[in-house]
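User: Can you help me understand a structure? I only have the sequence.
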Amino acid sequence: MKLLQTEIDIEPGRKPQKQALPEGWVGQGTAVVRLKNNTNQENAYKVRVRCDNPYWQETWASFAALPPSGSENAPPAGKPDQYGPNNSDVTVYVTRGGERDVMVLFDVPRSYDARAGLYRLVIQVETRVVGPTTGLRRKERFTELKAVGIIRPFYAWSSEITPETRKVGFFRRSADFELVLVNEGNDWLYCDLRQPKPKDVLIEMPSTRIAVPPPEPGQERSVRTIPVRGISKVRAFRGERQPMPLPLTVARVEAPTVAPLPDVAKYEPASANCHAAVVEDDTQDLRLPQNDKALINCPLFPATLSGCLGAIAQNGKGLIMTIIGLIVAANLAVFMFEQLFRNNIVAEPYRSQVAPGGVLTMGGRWLHGARVFIDDDPQPAELAKPVENEGVRNTFSNLLRAVHPAQLQLIGVRIPESYDGKRIRLTVQRAGALPFLGPLLPKHKCGTTVQVGTPKKEPVPAKKSLAFVPPTVTPKQQFTIRGQNLGNGGRVMFGNEPAAIKKWQSNYILAVPPSGMPLNEPIEVNVWPENREEPIWRGTIKIVDPTAQAAAQPGGPGGSAPASGGGTPTGQAPAGGGTATGGGGTARPPIVTQPPRVTPAGASGAYAAILRGDDAAAASAINSALAANANDPLALALKGYALLRDERAGDARGPIAQALRLSGGGSGRTRAVALTASAWLSEVSNDATSAERQYRAAIDADKTCVLAYYSYTYFLLDNNRRMEAVEQVRAALRQNAREARGSRKFMELAGKLGIR
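Assistant: Let's start by predicting it. Here is the structure, written out as tokens:
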């Protein structure tokens, strides 16, 4: 694989060039990927674009497969080029020794989202081997081709001065404006503020060079305001109003983020020079002064009588408001004095622990006469004589460095016994010079928390215990109770009889049922850890004997058996008064017993081992089940499934076909496992339609079969159907949470999909 253009010049709003450029040129919105198959087999190549830049959008890149250069490079019959959604990727088939070109088109809109700059692009080529053994080959090879996309800047901006007019006069010589710069482009906007030296107006600004960033994603514009002060040079005592426009011109400076494309790169192979230094340059992109933005010079006395009367009427409202403001200021003067000069109180306790009913010494500034509150109690605490000595004062001097030693004051606070064992925080409010203003003064909350007496120990809540007990157990056989926080010991009671405990751990219990218990009947069971007042599990289980055999006589009572030597059929009296087994008759044939039906314990154990991922235990259980009954359909289905996991599809066909025939057309776990194995066999044979149909039939046969959900989820992931795969995992957790969460393989798959 080769990328013919490693530098792509992208101008927002410009359609990409359809013609492929030779190798080494700077791509004009396009790049060509050359795919060459050097193997001796037919390959499929999937090409896509990846970029880790946060401003990059996947919709900007699309693909177009170029026609093959000759018949030897033509795609195989029946395998046309395949495009992804919106041409976001393309898959082409290349015969062995063939060569194909794929064009990458970059169509970037002229929008603020297309941030100007350099974008590190990765053209990812995924190679897939095409052939009859595709289902058995799941390893794919990825090749990454590096490129640089250069998105050029464009500029869309405006300027505005607010407000439109401001008044100045004989005493007030200046007024403040705001210059608003709006950037709607995709790059930084640099502007120079130019002003001539006018006769009547001066302009003051914090800076003459302004930089405005481009809009962030989700914003249509980026706005920056610059304070501008206009100063009038006219000082008229009497006269008419005179508007003075602000002579402010805004000029854009050419300083792009990336260096311009050299002219030579447009006509011959050359570098885009994207890492070169950028030199600023002046432009003719100007925003001229606006005549409606002006200072209005208002003399102290109008030139005419009508103007004088109008000024009095206009300023009368201001005179009245001034008088009201003076009255309010006189009332607030005392409060402001207390707040600014008297209420700079500082206070902290001497210790962080005090005995109930004891006195806590506090030090600080402006404490004499202050009120002390404990927590949210609205009533002030009782004051007492503080502990005052040189050591206490030295401690407070180090603690409160902002308080001068001459200003340090000490007070004592008696802590009520009702706060024993609690942590409290004190609040101090200084008493004002005017009593009626005292409650309005702010309160100072101390930063130190004080412990009263000994802190009370709160009981630690016990961790919740859970236990999962199997519904059936076997006599004299060990069974397992799983759970969490089970403790280190206890007892398991079958009615009034304790079970023999083999091992007791925090997460599982190994026990043996007591002997002499009735079989096949519900028995009340309690799981009772030590030091617990109540059992953590209470329910009923059954003790089932798996060795029980159903014996049946071929003829049954009153049946017949063949006679020889003059004998009579068994169960009938002979004519000569003899018995059925005496006289001249032969002996009764032995009773033929039906062979015992193999219990599903071995096959079920193999099923659980496969879910756990224990291949050795699964193989042993399958062989054991087939040794007992060679026609066990569940064991045959699991055997075919295990052979498919070992990529032995040919050996798996026979057991799977036999399992489907023996399981019939009904439902249940056996039928579900057989259909699951058959579906995987169809998937390996590249029959995706049949595979999906059988996966769905397996789930319909047994909605609690976790193996069916597990295999169907992998089928969906292989076909890029992630959302449906997530739904299948959630369905398995709803239908059979216990079996699903007990399967290591299934929970690993759920973790990859972000499900816990």
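Now, to help you interpret it: Residues 549-601 have pLDDT under 50 and may be disordered. The chain has twelve helices and 41 strands. Let me know which part you'd like to focus on.
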